[in-house]
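Are you able to produce any protein sequence you like plus the matching backbone structure tokens because I've never seen that pairing?
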Amino acid sequence: MSLEYIGLKSIQGPLIFLEGAKNVGFEEVVEIRLENNEVRHGRVVAIEGELVAIEVFEGTDGMRLKNVYTKFLGHPLTMGLSKEVLGRTFNGAGKPIDGLGPIFSKITLDLNGLPINPVSRVYPRNFIQTGVSSIDTLTTLIRGQKLPIFTSTGLTHNELAVEIVKHAKIADQESEKFCIVFAAMGVKHDVAKYFKKEFEQAHVMDRVVMFENVASDPIIERIITPRAALTTAEYLAYYEDYHVLVILTDMTAYCEALREFSSSKNEIPGRKGYPGYLYSDLSNLYERAGMIKGKKGSVTQIPILTMPNDDITHPVPDLTGYITEGQIVLDRNLKQQGVFPPISVLPSLSRLMKDGIGDKYTRKDHKILADQLFASYAKVQEVRALSQVIGEDELSGVDKTYMTFGRLFEAHFLNQGEETRRIGESLDLGWDLLSMLPKFELNRLQEQDIETYIHKDRAEQRFNIKKENKIEKILGKSV
């Protein structure tokens, strides 16, 4: 028998406090009926004796202390799921908002997820092809990995997310089942419409499950959104055998909502006002990525987070970097040069890349190409710094070659617009770029590798460098 409690002790922001409640569980779902018969929902977030704090998903606007009827439902927040969630759009709490009716679920799962036994985890292998050369070649996304994108206000992270959704796939294995769970948190209405419009125009909506939490929605719903998205991903991966790519944008908006909610509970703040449990809260989300023994599917995460004031030491990117396996960093200077996507490859890193590339997964020359591209582009930055001091005209012939290589690398490799490239095309482009450098500068390659992959004539033709103006002649006899 379930009891219905009448009246409240107090209301604070999105929280209501009820006194005299017995046999109530933490995270238990609550049904709240107002005096006008409007029904709202919430969950228990704190219990102190018989005093219970409840967060209200729809907010507390219009609530009064009297004539409010509260019923505890005896179970945590759950979501009914089936394969029919593909192609559907939900709000942040997992309710359909696309006008196509409810989901007739086969199974109901707890939104908080279940802990994965570390022993049952499978080490991430094989890669997910995003179609973006700088990611696929230099910071490869591995199936079952969590690889965040660090961005800033005004950069083109939304456009990059759209391109990944449009073109991502499981390598060349067409028979593999692949889908995307896309969760937008705290975005503007026009941005939410942009996402859905782009997915529909690209005809990829049938493989996307979309969760929308716009800026005007309650913050409590924003806290639920990534949990609903990840629960959906886990169902598709572990019950329907899909390889699922989860894109969460923007995790900074989620953390801001968590900070506001923590403040309403009068909790002691931590660094920059965020709650002291921010690390464990983010861990609960990020660690839901992975692969499990005996299951065919996988969950891979790309959380996108904006760095306030471009500060990579801000608590949100800082803690995210500790939990995840690398990062993809977007650069404002590249964006101002018109490069899309503006990925800064030197601070970007994929720690699991080495285990998901090579002969069995991508191509046997992938690792040596990536190593040499990193080394050569790092040298470009040194030469550019030197040119700021002595001027480009005073550089040696080899240094001028690096300046040209840097411009070609950014114009042709990093800047690809909305074009999608298969992994083989990206690798071939990388070799053609390296062919513009003198062979004695390719110090990460063996002589056999240079003979096999370096083709200066092909590179000159690709980048439209005339024979009579060979790069050695242009940039100095010392080359």
Q: What stands out?
A: The chain has three domains: 4-76, 79-355, 366-475. Residues 366-390 form the longest helix (25 residues). The CA atoms of residues 129 and 172 lie 9 Å apart. The two ends are 87 Å apart (CA to CA).
